Amino acid sequence: MTTKHTALITGASGGIGYELANLFAKNGHDLVLVARNADKLKEIAEDLQVKYRNTVHIVPMNLSNADTPNELYYYLERNSIQVAYLVNNAGFGTHGKFSEIELQEQLDLVQLNITTLTHLSRLFIPGMLKRKYGGILNIASTAAFQPGPLMATYYASKSYVLFLSEALASEMKGTGVWVTALCPGPTATGFQQRAGIEKTTLVKKTGMMMDVEKVAKIGYHGFMKKKSLIIPGVVNRVFAQGIRFSPRKLTREIVKFLHDGE
Q: Which pTM does this prediction carry?
């Protein structure tokens, strides 16, 4: 029988975050769901509580704000909500030339994809270490394995997430705490529209798009097995690992081609 714990999931109102919320709830865990859309979070919470009879807390917050991680952490402290699993899923991408994308949008991306993830991880790890149990699931990407012309800031942010996760996984060995990086390839979510890449070669012509429910299941079960790195899909694993054997100049040009074109 699964021991009930509480999972905190950021970016839980859709996509991989929503599917992971379903999986944690289905497997007997309580939830703290964080996203900007309060109405959507309320709808999800009510649905999950009816289905699985678990407790679902919703915390509508904009995690792109620098003070939000502290606000979230102390809110949970005040309400005696102990988090065993932290899922850093919130994030977004941008598409276009670095010199042409609005500066504030890129700074918001760095804040959410990198700084907020780092901040939350640092806040919750000490409690996990003290209890000698807990896990962090960071959503990276196959983008983490190479530079990404026309999505430069996004690719760089996911490299940070991957490398931080792998380093922390090593540091946490033997403590009862583990860190997992989930690196999906193209996945059918709202990410493509938000990033403005729905008409690119990568999305329209490669056939690499994976079902979001399948990606989440692979991620959840790998996380619960305490794997440090998960790359869903054979094609994605070959692509991510094959980068090591390709000339870097060629790799950059391939990625640029995939993100170019209509």
A: 0.90
